[in-house]
Give the backbone structure.
Amino acid sequence: MKKIPGVLIKTGFIFLTAALILSSCVPMKRIRYLQDPKNEKEVRTEFQKIDAAEYTVHKGDNLFIQVNALEDKNNYFDEPGDATNYYTESGIYLNSYTVNDSGFVEFPLIGKILVNGLTIEQIQKELQKKVDDYVKNTIVIVKLANFRIAMLGEFKAPGKYLVYQDKINIFEAIAMAGDMTDFAKKNQVLLVRQSENGVKTKRLNLNDYSMLESEYYYLMPNDLVYVEPLKGKQFAFSEFPYLLILTTITTTLLFIDYFSK
């Protein structure tokens, strides 16, 4: 049997190894967020401030309402549920008031209050006026108890998240989900937003600095963010048995070299 030169075997092995490694690489331009535009002479460092859109309460929402009296220690406004458990999702739900199908919430002593279509601030002011008719020197606190977002697709920790703040931007939400994977299609992120009139979708480019000035920079309650994988994901080391292939190639080359001697 004609002997195969050792140099040829080593060269072939190196070539195959390099080809397998390179096929699993993702270009840096697909990984980075907020990339500098190439067509601008100077990179922008200041961006227009974007205020989060005011969320208006809908049917089925849950409102956390608390009345704190500064002087009168009597509790005229009993709270629903278990008042000792505010720090779990179920506890928040049990201690909240649900907006019924007619757009009202039922509050102790006061009765029905129309809240559908109002912002949290508007509800707080309206409720404060009504509470002041019963008890003076009170502070009414109103919070949206069901501020949830869903992060699906190419996230390291996809899932549904409860937001404990008045507003959250898309990058904060991504951080909650453990960041995107290297195989996320960052320039084609799908935002699904619900409203009383139906559902609308919007494609977002997180590679572009203009995202910082987008009206979709801040997320709304019940938003869903879906990130598609790159087409080359199936060639990633985490998805493909590269170690097995390399081992097989190495063993085959060793056998060829052995029997060619």
Summary: The helical segments are 6-23, 28-31, 89-94, 120-132, 170-176, 242-259. The chain has a mean pLDDT of 80. Residues 147 and 233 are 33 Å apart (CA to CA).
